[in-house]
Amino acid sequence: MSLEEKKVHSCSVCQNEGENQGERTSHHDDKTIKELVTRMNRIEGQIRGIKGMIERHVYCDDILNQISSAQAALDGASRLLLEKHMKSCVKDQLQAGDEQVIDEVLKTIFRMTR
């Protein structure tokens, strides 16, 4: 995909920041980035804990409960990122007249709800 084709799928701020790398980027504020990184660190810890439980032969139901908790945490991070994406990148692309972003977001939402 050429840089011009990639620009079609990126908001104006993302396009300008991504020109040097040749790929799309987000432009979330520092608070959002910090919140997402904090969530990912917590989830990473949960996953390491689950791995340890498996290695220690912890009762299956207890492990399954922890896996469910980690999945819920990932779902929460996905919802937060989707919300921020809709309020920034998608909004900017729609205002610029790029309605293809609607199909992109729909595919993402459908994938998230499988």
UniProtKB/TrEMBL annotation:
Stored Pfam families: Trns_repr_metal (PF02583)
Region (Disordered): 1-29
Parts forming coiled coils: none
GO biological process: negative regulation of DNA-templated transcription
Domain of life: Bacteria
GO molecular function: DNA binding; metal ion binding
Stated name of the protein: Metal-sensing transcriptional repressor
Origin organism lineage: Bacteria, Bacillati, Bacillota, Clostridia, Eubacteriales
